[in-house]
Structure prediction request, 347 residues.
Amino acid sequence: MKKRLNNQELFHFCEQFSILLHSGISCEEGLHLLYEDSKEPESKKILQQLIQSFEETGSFSLSLEKSGLFPDSMLSFISIGEETGCLDEVMTNLSYHYQQEIEVSENIKNAVTYPLLMLCMMTAVIIILLVKVLPVFKQVFNQMGMEMNTLSEGLLNTGAAISRYSVVLILILLILTAVCIFLCFNRKGRVFIHKVSNHIPYIKEISISLDYARLTQAMYMGIHSGLEQDISMEMAQKLLSHPVVKEKAARAYELLSEGALLEDAFSQSGLFQGMDARLITVGLRAGSCDEVMLKLAEQYRENSLKITENIISTIEPTIVIIFSLFVGLVLLAVMMPLLGILSEIMI
Prediction:
């Protein structure tokens, strides 16, 4: 199975092609120009395949579909763009869409990286205290003919167990690392993470906000390109991943297919409610529904980032507090016997 292009590659392709189309260059000529300009062997191979497919089919969308490298939602928009004669606008909108996807992914990745690094560093500090520092103090106490208290002995035994089974612990750590790498960099792994996150409180709100951002962005692209509302809604559904949002969107599309107005389909399906539903209604009546959809897309993306920041702002101090207490406990286990020694010396 061919590996599909990532968001970064899709963004560059759409951006470059939109510039070529806006300059009055045809699709076939644009593919040849991109092929000549490409420096990477893999990119040249893909573009060569697209050129051959275009010569056979005479259709840009069919050429992309035949390659198996592009997402279905993108192919749907490009196909409609070819039919309506506004492929240049579609490619511009798609480049903006993938640019937004990249920015959201990077922001979430950066927000998660720091707490993970903090967790690893503080865990390493605690292990060093248990394995290396406490045994030194035990030797000192033994030489002075004193014994460590129950708390100190318990922590010391924990450190001894970590040292004794270090090989097993390292093996488990390597396995967990391999699993994490698989989940993060494998397509099936990412799908699994996404499904799990859809059921975790607070975290699922990020997925819902991102789905609404994709939905409104797709509706903007469709309406702005002159597509029928039901066709735009049909293509927008392909971008969704959260089951709740997908169910509501499917119901809205069903109502649109039955002849309902867009605002009625949204409200009756429960897809949009409150202020967002009123904005869409006003936009439809004013003839600027595409602009409203674009503004809503930006709001939903900002909301997803805000939720992420709120979660991280809660996790970070929690990690610091828990590990600080544990470090304090270890230090207290060492200081208590020392205080006992000092009190005897003073007497």
Remarks:
- The chain has a mean pLDDT of 81.
- DSSP finds 15 helices and no strands in the chain.
- The first helix runs from residue 7 to 22.
